[in-house]
Design goal:
This protein is mostly helical and about 230 residues long. It contains 12 helices and 2 strands, in the order H-H-H-E-E-H-H-H-H-H-H-H-H-H.
Length: about 230
């Protein structure tokens, strides 16, 4: 095991054991490296790595702190990775979304508040086939995020949001606009919202599977035509 990896694991162990909690300040570099039996250079590299994935927050002139460790913060980097992936990888990501989002929709059918449901319908009514691609992308992100958040499971919602590539969604909505498929896609959003409002978990799950699979199939055809 590389020395830096060992340092990362030891800091992780301190967090898992409760020795360090969210918001806590780490001991000074010299003290921490001596306590863990590691060189200052390996400790420094470990801190940098943990800062990148938002486990640690290095505040210049103040010290290094454990972040809030909230799911949304820790999974932030995944969206960046998703944006960098090619079309083949995106199809695999859609397959993951086809597993996760229907589960979130089923949970949302029994967890969403009246205000959340009203907000979902307001989102849908604010767009139509004449809406710009940019606004359609914003709607799409907000719609799927609202459903995921409505599941009441912060980890599930954060994981779904982290798979949301704005770059890929813009490409898809441009294609849907060219294929005159915007109305159909928005109708699918409305059907899902209505199922949620009726508290029908199984219908919400089925409609979400169909919706995501339809976009996935469109993307697969688009990728094939480009090849």
């Amino acid at each position: 095991m590389a020395v830096t990896d060992e340092a990362i694991l030891k800091i992780k162990g301190m967090i898992l054991s409760g020795e360090l909690s969210p918001g806590d300040r780490l001991p000074p570099e010299t003290e921490l490296s001596e306590r863990l039996g590691l060189s200052r250079s390996s400790m420094r590299e470990a801190v940098k790595a943990l800062e990148v994935i938002r486990v640690l927050d290095v505040r210049r002139g103040d010290g290094t702190y454990v972040t809030s460790l909230e799911p949304r913060l820790l999974l932030e980097a995944m969206t960046f990775v998703v944006d960098l992936h090619g079309d083949d990888s995106v199809l695999e990501l859609f397959a993951v979304r086809r597993i996760l989002e229907p589960a979130a929709a089923a949970l949302a059918a029994t967890h969403m508040s009246t205000a959340q449901l009203a907000g979902l319908h307001d989102q849908i009514s604010s767009v139509d086939a004449s809406t710009s691609v940019e606004d359609l992308v914003t709607h799409d992100l907000e719609f799927h995020s609202a459903v995921a958040e409505g599941s009441g499971n912060a980890y599930l919602a954060t994981l779904i949001d982290s798979l949301s590539s704005e770059t890929m969604r813009a490409r898809i909505w441009r294609g849907l606009t060219q294929d005159n498929a915007v109305t159909r896609t928005l109708d699918e959003h409305l059907a899902i919202a209505d199922a949620l409002a009726n508290g029908d978990a199984e219908l919400a799950r089925s409609l979400t599977v169909t919706h995501i699979f339809g976009v996935e199939q469109w993307l697969r055809r688009w990728s094939t035509e480009r090849a």
